[in-house]
Design a protein that fits this description.
Distance between the termini: 66 Å
Strand order of the largest sheet: 4-2-1-6-10-9-8-7
Number of helices: 6
Number of strands: 10
Shape: elongated
Order of helices and strands: HHEEEEEHEHEEHEEH
Structural class: alpha+beta
Largest sheet: 8 strands, mixed
Helix content: 25-40%
Strand content: 15-25%
Amino acid sequence: MSASTEQEDALVTSTDPLHPANLISELCASFYRLGWVTGTGGGICIRTHDKVYIAPSGVQKERIEPSHIFVLPYPQAEPSPHTDRIFLRRPKLNLKESACTPLFWNAFTIRNAGSCIHTHSQNAVMATLLWEKEKMFRISHQEMIKGVRIGGHGPTLSYLDTLEVPIIDNTPNEEDLKDSMKEAMEKYPRAAGILVLRHGIYVWGDDWQKAKTQTECLDYLLEIGVKMKLAGLPTVLNE
């Protein structure tokens, strides 16, 4: 093994359970059990200072290992399907970095996020269908709203606040969602996530803990919102 290869592998090798490469493996398995990343869908990234750790694309998310993780330097030019990406480390296996990479970069550059999570939760997909005309999921007076932060990184919302999550149209290729996601994030600076029609949701936070917490809270709110809508109950009070 060459010295450069050893240095690259050292980026994802640690006995610390809180090392990003270990965390991504653990969290992907957890999200799989929740039904958020089945069928190789979904993804997660963690940014620490000058490095970004990203899960691979098109793999069984519950079987990801730290050695499968890509490491990119940060900052660098915003990744897109039409630009080359700079890597500090690629897996030895013939893997491709997450197709979500350009969208994760939106969270970094627009919200200064430390982590971004993408799920294919059925609750998210159902919400996009039931609120498709409005292009905005809205709910109020739910205790779990207090677990969501303004813009995904600011103060937490209150029980009396109305949570709003924009819905953007899907595209055949994941990377092509980059511009519409960016537009929605800039148009709705208080939004803590972006729903994608018939697809799923992107959620971010200052670090992996906050991103995970907000993804859990939003998924809960999407689920209860869908049930209320189907039961003919208003999801927003005092309107």
